[in-house]
Amino acid sequence: MAEPDTREASLAQHLFRVEGRGAVVTGAGSGLGLATARVLARNGARVTLADVDEAGLQRAAADLAEEGCAVRTAVADVADRGAVDALMADAAAWDSGLHIAFANAGISAGPGFVAPEGRLDAVDDERWQRVLDVNLTGVLHTVRAAAHHMVTGYGRIVVISSLAGIRADPLVGYAYTATKAGVVALVRNAALELAPRGILVNAIAPGAFVTNIGKANPGRGRVVEEFARAAALNRLGDPAELEGLALFLASPASSYVTGAVLPIDGGATTGRNPV
Ligand SMILES: NC(=O)c1ccc[n+]([C@@H]2O[C@H](COP(=O)([O-])OP(=O)(O)OC[C@H]3O[C@@H](n4cnc5c(N)ncnc54)[C@H](O)[C@@H]3O)[C@@H](O)[C@H]2O)c1
Prior knowledge:
Elements: H1 4-10, H2 12-15, E1 22-26, H3 31-42, E2 46-51, H4 54-66, E3 70-75, H5 81-92, E4 100-103, H6 125-149, E5 155-160, H7 174-194, E6 199-206, H8 220-230, H9 243-250, E7 261-264
Parallel strand pairs: 1-2, 1-4, 2-3, 4-5, 5-6, 6-7
Helix pairs in contact: 3-9, 5-6, 6-7
Bound molecules: nicotinamide-adenine-dinucleotide.
Residues 26-27, 29-33, 51-53, 56, 77-79, 104-107, 134, 138, 160, 162, 206, 208-209, 211-213 line the site of nicotinamide-adenine-dinucleotide (NAD).
């Protein structure tokens, strides 16, 4: 028969416990970042919500604070190294320090090559650069600063990649696929470097979720339909459906998981949907 303390450790409230942990989520004003901040905060973590959208941040934080959650906000552009360094330094100075960081902020690169404006010839240099600055360099800024300040012996860094980073996707723009693949490589190397310090680094590769990303893209309606059809579940994901995986990767339950890329895609990687 198992020892009582072993039984205790197997209980969900211990396995998935993030209470008292300090967390930062970038891009927390909307979509997947907001869902992540919510699940961490509702389970007792102290969460700093960071975003460039001040109004979105205030709305998100006010709702969580009303529920009694410990939340703070920070307006920070992840493409700005100084802003991200300051964000993580502040989070580390709050109570018992920084334990969990989600590099979630990201932007669309426009439609993929199924649309004329998404073809190779049409790639706009300025937009390419901005997507790299946010989706790739922004992740470097976030991972580097978070790791620097995680000195408590418990570290969880999670990067939001995309299915488009692990396989070709004609529905999304070149800069997006390139950056989402780039962060996977960054995650694997950082996982190796940071393992001796007890910091686990993983990536989530979401399929298509209903959020604000890409809303302004031309032909959005058709793209959404195609994404839904590509999933075995034949629909897009709701951001709340990311909460379980986010909590798993932030919690003790993931103690033997690092350098991994975990898809959450309604079965979009299983193959062609017959319907
Ligand atoms: N929604 C999907 O289908 C999907 C699929 C795969 C991956 N992702 C990834 O998930 C992450 C979250 O996207 P989402 O779908 O929730 O989109 P979203 O647009 O709803 O939310 C993204 C948030 O990031 C913020 N943001 C944008 N640029 C920023 C910057 N430079 N610094 C700080 N904050 C910034 C935005 O203001 C916004 O609040 C992104 O990295 C995205 O690429 C989304």
